[in-house]
Design brief:
Layout (H helix, E strand, L loop, with lengths): L1 H8 L2 H12 L2 E2 H5 L6 H13 L3 E6 L2 E6 L1 H12 L12
Antiparallel strand pairs: 1-3, 2-3
Helix pairs in contact: 1-4
């Protein structure tokens, strides 16, 4: 899972999508207005974010609404923080 998250975060367009969705949930058409990329490219980026479980989508009528998956962010941060935890088996200098 962590590999998919890092891959998803490696692209500036995908990071921008996450920043946009941090402010509010929105349909792809509204997200697209904030970019100069094609709708096909945006769909590709959203698909990568969905596969990494960073965003979720929900159909509401004719629209698909995208939002951040906060539980995955919490899990990723917890995993990431384990790298900085002191190891009890190591001797300090």
């Amino acid at each position: 899972m962590i590999d998919a998250v890092f891959k998803a975060l490696s692209d500036p367009n995908r990071r921008k999508i996450l920043q946009i969705l941090k402010k509010e949930d929105m349909p792809v058409s509204k997200i697209h207005k904030k970019f100069t990329i094609t709708m096909a490219s945006l769909s590709h980026h959203l698909d990568i974010l969905k596969r990494a479980n960073l965003v979720i989508s929900e159909r509401k009528g004719q629209q698909i609404i995208y939002s951040l998956n906060l539980s995955v962010f919490e899990e990723v941060m917890s995993t990431f923080m384990q790298f900085f935890k002191p190891n009890n088996n190591e001797k300090s200098s």
